[in-house]
Amino acid sequence: MAVTVIGIDGGALPKGAAQELESARLVVGGKRHLDAHAPEHARKLELGPLEPALNALSALSGDEHGVVLASGDPGFFGAVRALRERGIRCSVLPSTSSVQQLMARVGRSWDDVVVVSATGQDLARAINVCRARPAVVVLTTAPKAGPAQIGSGLTGWRRTMVVAEDLGGPNESVVTVDPAEAAKRTWREPNIVLSLADLDDVPHRGWIAGGEPVPPATGWALPEEEFSHRDGVITKAEVRAVALAKLAPRPGTLVWDVGAGSGSVAVECARLGAAAIAVESDEAHAVRLITNAASHGVDVRVEEGEAPQVLRDLPRPDAIFVGSGGSDVVTACAHAGAARVVVALAALDRVAQTREALRTAGYEVEGVQLSAARLAELPDGTSRLEAADPVVLISGRKKP
Ligand SMILES: C[S@@+](CC[C@H](N)C(=O)[O-])C[C@H]1O[C@@H](n2cnc3c(N)ncnc32)[C@H](O)[C@@H]1O
């Protein structure tokens, strides 16, 4: 059995495709691809579910030839992986990927663009990458993970969406909309979305596709001097290091930094690839926070207001850091649906109630008291220890 996968992008079929189709015993593909390209004599199997197609291809005898029709470059988020997983070796005749086509229509280079695939299951992760990164293409999946759902998830972030429908087809349309508008519209399929922080930005040429990797070269748990802060209102680097380890920020996740102060935790989470929302009631802190995010080149959504009230309308987080706030804030955070919650406490009297609030909400809870003493130089060149105020970190992981 020989199988050829042919990519289709709305233009001419790739070189050699006509011969492959002519000799095919079985042609597998979506309805519109079969209608347009499958020859009369071949058996046709419409996708739908992949399993029956894989069975039919596997059942071809030694001298029979099968063709799979797929969109764009079938080796890119396409049929080739599923075939190989089933042990079906194939040759591939690729066309232009929908990502290439979209970026060509926009007239923008895409070596810095992150590409994510959104299924219903992965939609939240895909949206969080759009919230965190300045340029992201989302491969949509109808009907539950399309432009409307992505627009709805990006409302509240400064983003512009370019939505392309039926690229290369008779109903091709490429429109630029804001997320709120995208959320309201009905979109034709197939479609694909480009999410941009700045439509006109021309990013520097990088060295790795998809933008700079995380963690950044400058490391993490940065010294306090890296952040603008007031009166020492900042989570110290050593405490931040442990908090970040417990929060596990990474691409695809959303972190709330509640009572954010300088926003050092939110900024560090964003530097590690997570989407971040900083909640801060003090206007001066909020302004500083915006400056801190900008100076570290990351996007942190700042919600100026009082927790717990302001938390109600925020999208569901994967992890929450509570840097300050009363027991009502801890209780609200414990019930926000995050997999991880970390609370920093200076007041020992609040340890038991915080632990209890997290336990009651279904978390496995642990706690640690952290007291770092840094080396400080004395005038004669010798050293002494300079103790920072001790902090208790209570951290909860949602029970599976
Ligand atoms: C499963 S992925 C496959 C990607 C494909 N291998 C490629 O290289 O383009 C399918 C994604 O491409 C989009 N797509 C495929 N053909 C398209 C078209 N003609 N116009 C817009 N989006 C398209 C789908 O909506 C979905 O987001």
The unreliable regions are none
* CATH architecture annotation name of the largest domain: 3-Layer(aba) Sandwich
Q: In total, how many beta strands?
A: 19
Kindly name the structural category: alpha/beta
CATH class of the largest domain: Alpha Beta
Could you name the CATH topology of the largest domain? Rossmann fold
- So what's the overall shape? elongated
Quick check: average pLDDT?
A: 95
Largest sheet: 7 strands, mixed
Q: Rounded to an integer, what's the Rg over CA atoms?
A: 26 Å
Strand order of the largest sheet: 13-12-11-14-15-19-16
User: Roughly what percent helix?
Assistant: 25-40%
Textual characterization of the structure:
- The chain is α/β, with parallel strands linked by helices and 400 residues long.
- The protein folds into 3 domains: 2-96, Cobalt-precorrin-4 Transmethylase, domain 1 (3-Layer(aba) Sandwich), CATH 3.40.1010; 99-196, Tetrapyrrole methylase, C-terminal domain (Methyltransferase, Cobalt-precorrin-4 Transmethylase, Domain 2), CATH 3.30.950.10; 224-398, Vaccinia Virus protein VP39 (Rossmann fold).
- It contains 13 helices and 19 strands.
- The strands form 4 sheets. Strands 13-12-11-14-15-19-16 form a 7-stranded mixed β-sheet, sandwiched between helices. It has a 5-stranded parallel β-sheet with strand order 3-2-4-1-5, with helices on both faces.
- β12, α11 (283-295) and β13 form a beta-alpha-beta unit.
- α6 (123-132) packs across α7 (147-154) and α12 (327-334) runs parallel beside α13 (351-360).
- The structure holds S-adenosylmethionine (SAM).
